Every structure is written in C-alpha cells, then in structure tokens.
C-alpha cells in the first residue's frame, strides 16, 4: 500500500486543511518531518525529493483504507461497524482501581513489552502531551492517562524513538487516531521499525479537543490489541475490547496475577454504543459536509437524501 504523494501533499491536504490531529505518525520515522516542541503540530522540515512519501502514507488523515488495514492486521473484516474487529468484550475492575496500569504491569511481567510509550503533558493550553518512554510498570504509573486529552500530542514518534534505542518489544497507550496512523505504518510497504511494536492499547475517545477531531469516526481504537473504554461501565470499572491474541494474552496474565477481575463476561454494550454512535453520527455528518453525493447534475445534501431513503 503506497500512494504517490509526499510532504507537499500532506501539507496541502491535511495540515493546512485543518485535518491534522498531531498524532506524530508522519514524523515517527521520516527525517524530513518534525513537530513543534510547544504545540505538537507537525511540520515539514525540508522539502524532500520523494514522490512516494512515508509521511503522506503514514498519516491517518491523508487516506484510510479501513478494510485493507483490518485484513492485514487481523485477517478479517469487522462485523460490528462501530466497534471494529474484536474477539471479546468484558467488563473489569482492578485491584488498585487503575485498570490501564494493571494491564501495563501484566504486559511488563509477561515480557510482552520491554518499554512503553506514554504521553507526558507539557502543561500548555490547549493541552499537549509529548511522548515519554518508560521501562517498567512503576515509572508508567504517574503517566497512565486518565482522559483522552492526556494523550493529545505526537505520541507515535515515541515508537520511532524507542526503535532508535534498539528496543524490540515496544508498547504504547494512545488514542484511536494515533493507532490509525501506527496501523498504516505497520501495514505499509515501507521499512520503518514500527514492527517492533508489540502491544497497542487504545483509550476510547468520545471526543477530542483538536480542530481535526471533528472529522474523527473512531471511538474505540479500532486498530488496537486492547481498547479500554470507561464509557459504558460504572466507575471505576471499564469495558475491555480484546481484538488480538496478544491482547488476550495480556488480559489473561492480568487476571492470573489478580491485577484485574472480570465483573461481567457479557456486558450490556448499550451505554458504550450511545457514546460511540453519537460521535460517529456527528462526525460523519461533518465529513460529508453539505454535499453528500453528486448524482449527474444534482448535489444531494445529507438531509435531502435521508428524506428520500426513508420514504
Ligand atoms: S500524520 Fe498525524 S501529525 Fe502528521 S499530518 Fe497526519 S494527522 Fe497530522
Ligand atoms: S476525537 Fe479522539 S481519537 Fe479522534 S482525532 Fe480527536 S483525539 Fe484522536
């Protein structure tokens, strides 16, 4: 999967078009891209001679072939349009009320990860976090995100940094958008180093605070190994959407170590889906804009077409 476009196209179609969500995918492995050290915004350092740019092909907002990515990552396509591919959804609580940290502790102890990329808020307003690599569960504790905005920033660059440190099993906790970019890099035909990523945990996101968030339709982190959703479960419990074998391995290890306990193996998903559907509906409308389809000489709006279809 490679598209013949590069950094100038990325600037015009994504960055200047207000679609960028500062995920850091474009500058994770490309020396011609960087991010602003205060705002986290991506920028082109120097125009390169590439016609097939890694930056453009890594960006979740340049194009996102969901079906192709799913086939390559999971070997199957989703049945649930809103949740994505998954093996199981369970409701859990943690011994210390910190479910994400329990998963991280289990992943380190089980040898699934040797380091973890987390966001470290820089205190700026609006909130921006920069990637921080930690090497044990104890150091991870103070950086475990409590909300999606704790992750807002170029976290995918942390994968590139860990790769440069010769790490082989790299974990990341990030927002759905970060993992869209990382998934594109993982399934691309570029040689990067992203394949050293061994665990991707998504923090489900009902809405973010960046301008580009209004075009986002991924609530749960569809390209993760495990998604963590505090939405749809009573506090301090959460839903875990387990998508892959490695996700299952970490959850099983956390259960065996008694770090987490399953409170409901078949939870009611209706509450979570309320948040999920609200976000998807609203942002699909923003994406579609005023003109939904052009049929020969006529433009149909979302509302017009809805009326026609419902007759
Ligand atoms: S990869 Fe992420 S940071 Fe880079 S332009 Fe795309 S959305 Fe913005
Ligand atoms: S809404 Fe959440 S997942 Fe979507 S782009 Fe914004 S921060 Fe990322």
In terms of structural class, how would the helical and strand content be classed?
Answer: alpha/beta
Radius of gyration: 19 Å
CATH class descriptor: Alpha Beta
| pLDDT averaged residue by residue | 92
Bound molecules: iron/sulfur cluster
Tally the helices: what do you get? 10
Task: Please tag this protein with its features.
311 residues; alpha/beta; Aspartate Aminotransferase, domain 2; 8-stranded mixed sheet; 10 helices; 32% helix; globular; binds iron/sulfur cluster
Describe this structure in words.
The chain is α/β, with parallel strands linked by helices. It has a single domain, classed as Aspartate Aminotransferase, domain 2 (3-Layer(aba) Sandwich). It has 10 helices and 12 strands. It has helices spanning 7-15, 54-58, 66-74, 99-109, 137-140, 157-164, 176-187, 245-256, 270-288, 302-310; strands at 33-35, 42-44, 88-94, 115-121, 129-134, 170-174, 197-203, 226-229, 238-242, 260-264, 293-295, 298-300. It has an 8-stranded mixed sheet with strand order 5-4-6-7-8-9-3-10, sandwiched between helices. α4 packs across α8 (245-256). The longest helix has 19 residues, at 270-288. The mean pLDDT is 92.
Give a summary of the structure in a few sentences.
This protein has helices spanning 7-15, 54-58, 66-74, 99-109, 137-140, 157-164, 176-187, 245-256, 270-288, 302-310; strands at 33-35, 42-44, 88-94, 115-121, 129-134, 170-174, 197-203, 226-229, 238-242, 260-264, 293-295, 298-300.
């Amino acid at each position: 999967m490679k598209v013949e476009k590069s950094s100038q196209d990325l600037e015009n179609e994504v960055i200047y078009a207000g679609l960028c969500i500062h995920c850091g995918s474009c500058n994770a492995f490309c020396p011609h891209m960087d991010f602003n050290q205060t705002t986290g915004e991506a920028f082109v350092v120097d125009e390169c001679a590439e016609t097939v740019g890694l930056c453009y092909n890594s960006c979740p907002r340049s194009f996102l072939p969901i079906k192709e990515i799913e086939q390559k990552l999971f070997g199957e396509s989703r049945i649930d349009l809103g949740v994505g591919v998954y093996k199981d959804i369970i409701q859990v609580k943690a011994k210390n009320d910190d479910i994400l940290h329990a998963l991280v502790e289990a992943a380190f102890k089980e040898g699934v990860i040797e380091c973890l990329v987390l966001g470290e808020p820089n205190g700026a307003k609006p909130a921006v976090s920069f990637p921080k690599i930690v090497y044990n569960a104890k150091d991870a504790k103070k950086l475990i995100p409590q909300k999606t905005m704790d992750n807002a920033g170029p976290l995918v660059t942390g994968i590139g940094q860990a790769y440069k440190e010769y790490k082989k099993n790299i974990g990341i906790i990030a927002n759905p958008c970060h993992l869209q970019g990382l998934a594109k890099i993982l399934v691309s035909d570029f040689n990067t180093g992203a394949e050293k990523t061994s665990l991707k945990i998504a923090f489900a996101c009902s809405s973010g605070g960046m301008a580009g968030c209004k075009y986002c339709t991924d609530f749960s982190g569809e390209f993760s190994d495990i998604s963590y959703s505090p939405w749809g479960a009573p506090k301090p419990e959460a839903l875990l959407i387990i998508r892959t074998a490695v996700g299952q391995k970490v959850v099983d290890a956390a259960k065996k170590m008694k770090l987490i306990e399953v409170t409901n193996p078949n939870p009611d998903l209706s509450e979570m889906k309320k948040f999920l559907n609200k976000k998807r509906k609203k942002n699909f409308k923003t994406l579609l804009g005023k003109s939904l389809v052009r049929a020969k000489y006529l433009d149909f709006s979302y509302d017009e077409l809805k009326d026609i279809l419902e007759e």
